[in-house]
């Protein structure tokens, strides 16, 4: 059975109701390796009905039962990690080393954290003569992007299960295979029928049907700001809860006392992570005006040392972009950067030398970027760094905050008091000081057009809960 031709509904692999399919293209070779069924409103109706019928029983399972279930999911996931890594290489084009070290284990880590969070979580608290009880919100529609599929599945499915919610997952039409494999894992783990359901499809059909569905209590969306706005509008008529994890254009402030060789290099590598297709990537590097040449030189050397090529090769550090459309989009931004007067330090439009097949981009650094330029304002979602000069600390903070987004920010300084004072003034959901790594136990989410709500750890679990006051409960 080819998983790609089926959906997972009510604990079984079912045939799609319609006959729409979409080719699956390997971004490194541009060759099709199969096709996936794309569902529509009728498939979503069937999956929501399965989730709805499973909800009364699953929502009343005990904490211990759900801890045990999460443990079984972790164990089943761990048995398939090699296969998951190969899928990520094939469908996302992520270098195998990154797939093994980040994509796959981070997905599992969310389930481990959800388990520990659940074990310590207080669902029922006295308040005078009353009780305040937190309960699963209901049927959740989970819509995810293609860039870090397993990480995004974990960020949503793990807390939803911990809360006692039932789920309809709609993966990205661009990267459905990792989600299909994940559905197999859920089946193997013995997740009760109807608790987890999966329907593939694109945004305007399956995504819209899920967000607007009257029997879905919450939709959690990760993707572009454009998609997040569409989901919120579609969800409004049924007054469901909407959680949004959207785009970013995160600033990385090099304060003048930072360890430049280390911090600039780390900033460039982080910007290029997953070929620059990472929502929280530090894509705007803010450098002191009088140290611009030094920053440019470190950035140039780092970019030129990237090993661009076949993601299946262990030596590769930069794989291709996800698809032709993304390649064209990134090329458009690179052209626009030049046209609007940014100075090219390295890289630029076109394919890297010797790579004539695959959606490969040249690791690019622009300098003397001004905050008004398109490449400073819009998410490029490719391996392109913008170096923006600043006059003084206040100017750096002003530039960092002059964005419609607010997902993450980065501060580099040898003085932690100074770095903390700057961090407090940045309008972003996470601020990383001196390269502190992502911690999945901490809240993650955006200010402004980067989203609403928080995922990860305790904050992620809380998103999937309703709050009930039981008055007079204690006499
Ligand atoms: P996208 O918005 O095109 O698609 C994301 C998902 O939404 C897909 O499953 C798609 O089918 C669905 N979708 C699209 N239009 C929809 C609609 N009208 N109704 C319902 N569903 C719809 O985004 P993408 O290109 O897949 O992902 C890249 C974007 O995701 C970037 O902007 C990136 O910053 C963002 N992202 C954010 C986070 C975060 O946590 N904040 C994480 C990863 C990616």
Which descriptors would you attach to this protein?
globular, six-stranded mixed beta sheet, seven-stranded mixed beta sheet, 475 residues, 15 helices, alpha/beta, Aldehyde Dehydrogenase, Chain A, domain 1, single chain
Give an overview in words.
The chain is of the alpha/beta class and 475 residues long. The chain has two domains: 3-246 and 450-470, Aldehyde Dehydrogenase, Chain A, domain 1 (3-Layer(aba) Sandwich); 251-439, Aldehyde Dehydrogenase, Chain A, domain 2. 40% of the residues lie in helices and 19% in strands. The chain contains 15 helices and 20 strands. It has helices spanning 41-58, 63-79, 81-92, 96-120, 149-163, 177-188, 203-212, 225-236, 260-271, 292-304, 324-339, 374-377, 393-401, 416-424, 457-463; strands at residues 7-9, 12-14, 21-25, 32-37, 124-127, 130-136, 139-143, 166-170, 196-198, 218-222, 241-245, 251-254, 284-288, 343-346, 364-367, 384-390, 408-412, 430-433, 451-452, 465-470. The strands form five sheets. Strands 14-15-16-13-12-17-18 form a seven-stranded mixed sheet, sandwiched between helices. Strands 9-8-7-10-11-19 form a six-stranded mixed sheet, with helices on both faces. Helix 2 packs antiparallel against helix 4 (96-120), helix 4 (96-120) runs parallel beside helix 5 and helix 7 (203-212) crosses helix 8. The longest helix is centred in the first third of the chain and has 25 residues, at 96-120. The chain is globular, with a radius of gyration of 23 Å. The termini are far apart. Nicotinamide-adenine-dinucleotide binds at residues 143-148, 170, 172-173, 202-204, 207-208, 211, 222-224, 227, 230-231, 245-248, 279, 379, 381, 407, 446, 451.
């Amino acid at each position: 059975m080819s998983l790609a031709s089926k959906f997972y509904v009510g604990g079984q692999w079912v045939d799609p109701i319609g006959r729409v399919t979409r080719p699956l293209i390997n971004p490194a070779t541009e060759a099709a390796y199969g096709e996936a069924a794309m569902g529509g409103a009728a498939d979503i109706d069937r999956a929501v009905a399965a989730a709805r019928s499973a909800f009364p029983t699953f929502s009343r399972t005990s904490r211990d039962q759900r801890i045990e279930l999460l443990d079984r999911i972790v164990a089943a996931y761990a048995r398939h990690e090699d296969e998951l890594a190969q899928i990520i290489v094939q469908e996302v084009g992520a270098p195998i080393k990154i797939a093994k070290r980040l994509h796959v284990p981070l997905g599992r880590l969310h389930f481990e954290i959800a388990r520990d969070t659940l074990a310590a979580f207080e669902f029922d608290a006295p308040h005078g003569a009353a009780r305040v009880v937190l309960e699963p919100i209901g049927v959740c529609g989970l819509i995810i992007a293609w860039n870090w599929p397993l990480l995004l599945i974990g960020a949503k499915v793990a807390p939803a299960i911990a809360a006692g919610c039932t789920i309809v997952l709609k993966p990205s039409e661009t990267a459905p295979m990792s989600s299909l494999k994940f559905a197999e894992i859920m089946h193997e783990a013995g997740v009760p029928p109807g608790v987890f359901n999966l329907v593939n499809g694109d945004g305007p059909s399956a995504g819209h049907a899920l967000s607007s569905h009257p029997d879905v209590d919450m939709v959690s969306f990760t993707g572009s700001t454009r998609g997040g706005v569409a989901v919120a509008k579609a969800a409004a008529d049924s007054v469901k809860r909407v959680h949004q994890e959207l785009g970013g254009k995160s600033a990385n402030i090099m304060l003048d006392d930072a360890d430049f060789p280390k911090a600039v290099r780390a900033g460039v590598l982080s910007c290029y992570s997953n070929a620059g297709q990472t929502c929280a990537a530090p894509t705007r590097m803010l450098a002191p005006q009088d140290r611009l040449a030094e920053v440019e030189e470190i950035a140039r050397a780092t970019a030129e040392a990237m090993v661009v090529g076949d993601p299946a090769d262990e030596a590769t550090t930069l794989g291709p972009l996800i698809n032709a459309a993304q390649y064209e989009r990134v090329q458009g931004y690179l052209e626009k950067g030049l046209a609007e007067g940014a100075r090219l330090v390295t890289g630029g439009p076109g394919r890297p030398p010797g790579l004539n097949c695959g959606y490969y981009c040249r690791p690019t650094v622009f300098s003397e970027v001004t905050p008004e330029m398109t490449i400073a304002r819009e998410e490029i979602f490719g391996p392109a760094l913008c170096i923006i000069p600043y006059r003084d600390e206040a100017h750096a903070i002003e530039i960092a905050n002059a964005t419609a987004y607010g997902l993450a920010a980065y501060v580099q300084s040898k003085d932690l008091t100074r770095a903390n004072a700057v961090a407090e003034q940045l309008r972003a959901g996470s601020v990383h000081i001196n390269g502190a790594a992502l911690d999945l136990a901490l809240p993650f989410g955006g200010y402004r057009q980067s989203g609403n709500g928080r995922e990860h750890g305790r904050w992620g679990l809380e998103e999937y809960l309703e709050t009930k006051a039981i008055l007079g409960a204690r006499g």
